Prior knowledge:
The chain is α/β, with parallel strands linked by helices and 336 residues long. Helices cover 44% and strands 18% of the residues. The chain has a five-stranded mixed beta sheet with strand order 3-2-1-4-5, sandwiched between helices. Strands 8-7-6-9-10 form a five-stranded mixed beta sheet, with helices on both faces. Strand 4 (75-81), helix 3 and strand 5 form a beta-alpha-beta unit.
Amino acid sequence: MNLLAIESSCDETAVAVVRDGRTVLSDVIASQAEMHADYGGVVPEIASRKHVEVIAALCDEALSRAALCRRDMDAVAVTYAPGLIGALLVGVSFAKSAAYALGVPLIPVHHVRGHIAANYITYPDLEPPCVCLCISGGNTLIVDVRGYTDMAVLGGTRDDAAGECFDKVARVLGIGYPGGAPLDRLAQSGDSGRYPLPRAQIHGAPLDMSFSGLKTAALNLIHNARQKGEALDVPDLAASFSAAVSDTLVPRVMAASAQMGYGKVAVAGGVAANSRIRADLQLACARAGAKLYLPALSLCGDNGAMIGCQGYYEWQSGNHADADLNAYATRDLGVG
């Protein structure tokens, strides 16, 4: 089965052709990162307009790279939630038109479910159940993946997403947007014990997290040093901040893994590329005797391949949409 998969939830327009859920025939992405860097973050209106400009050509390119044509497509899968509503609407509108014109099923895919599915591409032998840590600029969740389309949230952030905190601290430090990758590079040469930063605990909810206090503490440290004219060791701060985020995430996902007893831990989302988090998870899983699944770095960020992969399993479960499919800025993970 060949799926044409479309992702436009934020500032990347991505189109892929995926066969039977696991084989990626093509995966093309038009990134807007340079454009939004001038503003220090994604400007929703600009993102939406750029999606409109490139999506049709990107679709043609994906088909060409897959050496297939439109009539070879058996279904169209699309991210419909969550994300920037204007950006999502571009992808959903295009996908509805394509499915109607081709006379094939339209498959709605939840963005976070798509990120989880990126692991199935990296690890063809991986099957549910597993516990998955989903970490990105918009989401930080610990998910019980009971089946390909049967999932439940075990814990999550009460406020900011981990990725949003990385971006905000990087922006204030003046090291660019998106901030996750440059902050990670700096952290690798820094001392993670140099600057004491908080690790929040949620009373009565051991698997939930909070990052707003950590973000505020880091920003206050930066502002105070500048106001006093004190030297700030940026690599050490980056390392200290990365360690604080990892120390918040890793013990909770390992506790969830022990609670569920699957012996399998997966990671998903843009922040899954962070080297400190990957290393700490490898060590924690080795100690616990759990198998760790880390997606390929190329599949951590937003991409069409993951939507095509998850779309296949949504199609198998009968999750099809009609022409009245809408986009949603927020949507529960349990809703396909």
